[in-house]
């Protein structure tokens, strides 16, 4: 090992301090590397809030137990003292707050809110139990009559969390054949579309100047600088969310100097960059009759649920009040995409292209063999985002056949069912299905091409 080299494990446990203020951010918990450099997982808080002024006004008010991600790059972590086990950082504007939601209410206020929330949740469980009975899904409630307190509480929480408005619509929509306008249709027809733009991948990746797109780039930069754009990033697995978000931060690090800093990129506004996990809906048994489809249970106290696709993002935006926040902030365009599209995320050229076409929707397509069905990138006008959130019945669901082990309540006993073939449906909706409701002349296609 060279004299100035440091093993990643040596960083674990080191205190992280903001160089300009002396504020203690926290302690390095783990070091990750996903191909674009090391990333520090810093556990926020500590026994001291500053290095030399523990009682100063620099005290960190962030609750303990939280963590932030810090790219281990020389321009962000310029000084490391191995003897004192401290590193001094110079984080770009907004880095420590990225995707963080701090709660600065008093302890008394939080307790009052928790009590109100508890009562609200109890009412929702009661209402959900009534809906399940009306839908002839009473078998789901059997677990509430047996088991210990923890098991019953877990089942009640799962019942409460079901979006029944969306679930009912999904059950009805897959019971009748409907057409679909998938991303593949746009891939095949894009060459003949009038509102088509082809952008070299390197232009996005390196944020390089390109005279061919100067107008669109300037227009997009104006949209972002005026805080008229927001980005919603979607993942379908909470277990991989941290890893994907780490990769996102690494990609931000590459563009930090010439994009984020120079253009005050979103100001790294935590209210305009959201990372959300796909909503889950119950898996249902296979049947041609709507009333015969039953919610499957993994155990008497666990509903078998799977991510319901990117289309359910509109229900998430409404239920989490993100939609209200975006409207209050005057957002005009929303980018909805997967975390795999890192070079595209929040890129001014893409927003500018959609705006210059006068389009209400822009679909980004990558001409690459590496693209998968899970990769998607869509920019929608805020007007149409509002319409979709107000009426989620516009979403088009499909019933994907799957095979799952489950339990059934038979003659007062729980019986294990081991299927030998596909036995159930996953209810699934793609976000691109919303394009069915746009006038063709209001949709533009942007092809990202490899040169």
TrEMBL record:
Domain Ribosome maturation factor RimM PRC barrel: 10-95
Domain of life: Eukaryota
Any one of the GO BP annotations: UDP-N-acetylglucosamine biosynthetic process
Alphabetical list of InterPro entries matching this protein: Nucleotide-diphossugar_trans, PRC_barrel-like_sf, PRC_RimM, UDP-sugar_pyrophosphorylase
MF terms in GO: UDP-N-acetylglucosamine diphosphorylase activity
Gene3D superfamilies, A to Z: PRC-barrel domain, Spore Coat Polysaccharide Biosynthesis Protein SpsA, Chain A
Signal sequence interval, chain numbering: none
Descriptive protein name: Ribosome maturation factor RimM PRC barrel domain-containing protein
The organism of origin for this protein: Oryza barthii
